[in-house]
Amino acid sequence: MPRAHKDARTCDGALARAFDFLGKRWNGVIIGTLSHGPAGFAELKRAITGISDSMLSDRLTELTAAGLLSREVTPGPPLSVSYRLTSSGENLLPVLESLADWAAANLPEKKCREAIK
Question: Is the distance from CB of 83 to CB of 73 less than 8 angstroms?
Answer without folding.
Answer: no
